[in-house]
Every structure is written in C-alpha cells, then in structure tokens.
C-alpha cells in the first residue's frame, strides 16, 4: 500500500462526491513502484461517483485536466509513468469548468 | 529528478509552458505570464489612461485571474485605469449565490469596487422563475441574451468606458473552429479580434486572448486565488462542447495549435470585414443588419424590438416559448414529401405554417402578413436555402443540393448542440456514445433557433446567436 493524498479541484470534486481531498491507501503490484497512471485508475475505480468520462479518456486524464505531483506539473515528472511514493500528493485540476 | 528553472537556474521548475515548452519556477512563471499579458495590452492598445474599466466577474477562474492580473499590472505599469468588478446575478439559487460570494471576496482581495446587477432588477424575472415557466430546455437562450445585455447595462449604469472579459486563448480557438464549422462568415471575420463590441454599446476587450487556459489555472493554483468552479445547475457540464474537446485534443498533441488557430483567424480575409466591400475574390460582401435601437428599451438592436424584450414579452404574456423556439410538433411539418419533393412554393409556405399566426407579431414583428420568410432577405444569386424549414440557411452549391451542411451531416445534432444551447440532449448522447437522438436532426436544430426574423436576417444567424448566447459559449458572439 502507498499512502497518497489525492486532490480534486476546478470542479472535479463534483465528480468525486464533493471531496476535494482524499487520503488514500493505494495497493501496488509487488516489486513495482506505484505510478501516476495506476493512482489515477485507482481513483476512478474507487472514488469516482459520477461521469467517469469527464475525468479520464482512455488510460490518461481527459485533455484539459491538469495533473500535478507534489505541486509540480506532471509534464516535468514523466506524466503517466511518474512514480508515486508514500506521502506524495497528486492533484487533479479541471480547466473545463466555468469561466 | 528535480528539474531546475530554465530561466533563473536556481529554483525548482514547477511547470512546462505549453506555448514555449520552457520549464519555469513559480516566480519566473508569474513574471513571464504577467509580462506577456502586459505586452498584449500595450501592443493592442487595449486601454487608455483614465479609462473606467468594468472587469466582467463571474467568480470563475478566468475572471478571477483577470481581476488579479489587471489590478497588478495597473499598479505596476501605471495604466491609470479606474477598475471595478461587474457581476450579473442571474438569480439561480445555489449556483450564483455561491459564485457571488467569491466575487465579494475578490472585491476585498483586490480592493476594487464591485457592482452587481440582477436579472430581477433589470428584467423583473430571475432565472429560477424563468425556468419554472419554460422548463430547462431553452433556458440557456434566455440566460445568454439577458446576460449580454445585463453586462452592457450594468457597465453603462456605473459609467464604464469599456468591459474587459476573461476569454482566454482556448476560448478564442474554440470560437474560431465553431464559426468555421457553422459557416458563419461574419463572425469568423471578427471572432479573433481582441477588441469587439460592434453589436454592443461598449467595446469589449480580451487581455487573455493569447493566454492559455492551462497557465491561467496554474497561475490561480500556485497563487491560491479564490475562484468558483461549480457548474450552472441548469446546464451542468455544458461547456464541454465538441469544439472544446477538439481544441483540448489538439493541444495535447501539439500545444502550439491553439495559438496557431488564433493567428490563422487573424489572417482571414473575410468579405465585408472592411469598409471596402468589393473584394477581389468576387465573393459578395456579407451585409449585416443595420444597427438601430430597440423601441422599447433602447438597447442596440437590428430589429425594432430587441431579443431580450421579445423574450420578456413572451414571458410576461405567459407564452414564454414564443421568442425562443417553435413547438415540437411543428418541426415535423417540413418533412412532408421529403426534401426532394419540396417545391419553391412549399418551401416558402412551410415556415408560415410552422408559426402560430397569433404569435407571428411576437416572433416576427416586421412581417405583417405573418409569413416569417418575408423578413429574411433573399439568398444571393446562385445561393439557395437549406430545405429543412427550421434551418433555411442560405447556402451556395448546385440546385440539387437540398440541405445545408449542418442538416445533411450525420453529426448534425452534435454540431447544433455543441454549446448545450439545445438543452444538451444531443450533447449527452454524443458524450455518452449512446443511442442517437430519437428526434430528427431538424428538430434539434430548430430547438436552438430563435423565431424567424426575431433578430438579424438569416435564420442561420439566429441559430448561431442562440448557440453563442449560451453562457458557456458566450465568447462565440465575439
Ligand atoms: Zn526561475
Ligand atoms: Zn429591448
Ligand atoms: Zn440546414
């Protein structure tokens, strides 16, 4: 299990039962470190309450959803393959809501 | 694997800029983004010293960042602007109440005055009351028409010289695409303008025209700006039109696509755009309706009575749908005989049959006989009308062409409903990949139509107006 803080904002919280942050224990495959891709899929399968297509498209986030790993743009960390360790924070922000 | 800022080389990089792929730390990112917006403002001469500028404030991310950025730059560069926040309260309980709280906090945070005008004050109706009359199907039409006027009226009441809106690069790119798909040549010619408002009493400016949505959201996130991101309860998730989705897909594949779309639109040579209407391409200049003013309220309008007053009359008479759309059963009338069998006479007669004569003076006040097509100008020589009577878009092409691109395309319901202006049902089925609409495409097409001749001249322009007036696509009109 990896202890990760998952944060949802910019309207994504509405898809996750109005939760803005969840302290999650995410199972990992033995011998492998958890990746952002796995954390994301876990959130979809375990936390999402509404409209999964607004969160993910295929195996990644829906374009227009920003991802930060410990407050750093995931584009600087390897995106889907970025590794997530105990105590890390993964933030998902929708840019698609409201103006 | 900590990456350092590509600019200062000292701090940890926190984001990759979509336009340039630069990796920057927070401070260098703030500096770069603010400098870019300042450059946009000065290069396009958006403001003059001493001007009183209304910042259209919805409480959402774009307008919140705009208010922060404009107050910052005004101070830093001595623009000499008298800035204030202008909010419209549509009267949607549980939605606007909360976003107005956000705007009120912004007033304190940015120390600029806030003025709020409500639909109730301006029109005598809240959106909640309107929805209780009309249901949720056409409410975005009401809301969009009312909101546009409300901003202008509010700005005028507090003596503004212009209105600044938070439309960003993604919004503009989306609008360019929508106008291409709709074949809306007049709007295509001006939708990428940074200063708009030809059809409004006050100029509107877009300081974020070249600013990516990603950077606006990142800026708000890192600066912990206080914004509101709940959906309108009457059109939840309406902002996710197909064009929006497509723009985001393009950006994912190639981030520069957004600014390239805007730059290309700036290069369009659109007939009728300039005062010299004789273009060398041989295309006829597009003649827009002459701007006059509404005889009831004085608002700028191409028709004797403006669209808001028309909608209001319907509401006040207890016939709220009259100004918005025809009833469902009339959509099916034109299908008789099929498009191929339609003669010119049938074509002319169909719309008249589709409009309740009692309503004709509401919907098409200038068509004395109640024949609404009388209000629409004849197509240019060589053009004919789409034979879907709820559409009637003027189109070029061979005489054998029966329907315009919208109505012919199997994607048509999705195209029509890209903004959710049709009530979102087609959008929903597109999104969910579910069963196609049970209704024929023409029905959904007309759901977004204003009444024939209600404003503007071409039926297709009204359709665009209805779509453009959706709050989630409000920039489309610009
Ligand atoms: Zn730096
Ligand atoms: Zn009026
Ligand atoms: Zn058509």
TrEMBL record, chain A:
<comment type="function">
    <text>Acts as a sulfur carrier required for 2-thiolation of mcm(5)S(2)U at tRNA wobble positions of cytosolic tRNA(Lys), tRNA(Glu) and tRNA(Gln). Serves as sulfur donor in tRNA 2-thiolation reaction by being thiocarboxylated (-COSH) at its C-terminus by MOCS3. The sulfur is then transferred to tRNA to form 2-thiolation of mcm(5)S(2)U. Also acts as a ubiquitin-like protein (UBL) that is covalently conjugated via an isopeptide bond to lysine residues of target proteins.</text>
</comment>
<dbReference type="GO" id="GO:0032447">
    <property type="term" value="P:protein urmylation"/>
</dbReference>
<keyword id="KW-0819">tRNA processing</keyword>
<comment type="similarity">
    <text>Belongs to the URM1 family.</text>
</comment>
<dbReference type="GO" id="GO:0002098">
    <property type="term" value="P:tRNA wobble uridine modification"/>
</dbReference>
<keyword id="KW-1017">Isopeptide bond</keyword>
<dbReference type="InterPro" id="IPR012675">
    <property type="entry name" value="Beta-grasp_dom_sf"/>
</dbReference>
<dbReference type="Pfam" id="PF09138">
    <property type="entry name" value="Urm1"/>
</dbReference>
<dbReference type="InterPro" id="IPR016155">
    <property type="entry name" value="Mopterin_synth/thiamin_S_b"/>
</dbReference>
<keyword id="KW-0833">Ubl conjugation pathway</keyword>
<feature type="modified residue" description="1-thioglycine">
    <location>
        <position position="99"/>
    </location>
</feature>
<dbReference type="InterPro" id="IPR015221">
    <property type="entry name" value="Urm1"/>
</dbReference>
<keyword id="KW-0963">Cytoplasm</keyword>
<feature type="cross-link" description="Glycyl lysine isopeptide (Gly-Lys) (interchain with K-? in acceptor proteins)">
    <location>
        <position position="99"/>
    </location>
</feature>
<dbReference type="GO" id="GO:0034227">
    <property type="term" value="P:tRNA thio-modification"/>
</dbReference>
<dbReference type="GO" id="GO:0005829">
    <property type="term" value="C:cytosol"/>
</dbReference>
<comment type="pathway">
    <text>tRNA modification; 5-methoxycarbonylmethyl-2-thiouridine-tRNA biosynthesis.</text>
</comment>
<protein>
    <recommendedName>
        <fullName>Ubiquitin-related modifier 1 homolog</fullName>
    </recommendedName>
</protein>
